[in-house]
Amino acid sequence: MAPVVHGLEAKHAGQIDFLYLDIDDPTNADAKAKYGFRVQPQFFLLDAEGNVIQDWLGPVKAEDFEAAFAQVLTP
Length: 75
Fold this sequence. Notes:
Layout: H1 2-11, H2 29-35, E1 42-46, E2 52-57, H3 62-72
Antiparallel strand pairs: 1-2
């Protein structure tokens, strides 16, 4: 998944902030609870206020991310 996610991060630099959390790090327990972490990998698309717009469980195709991004990005 790293090549897909890092490619999307480069493509959408300045439009979408990508954050990465180490699920094994106990300091991330609050974030895991807040967003309802269930499996690895899990991805969340958040709005500017930190509300979950969409989440994905397991491997995701770049096209699926792009479709969700298109719904929230303004031209």
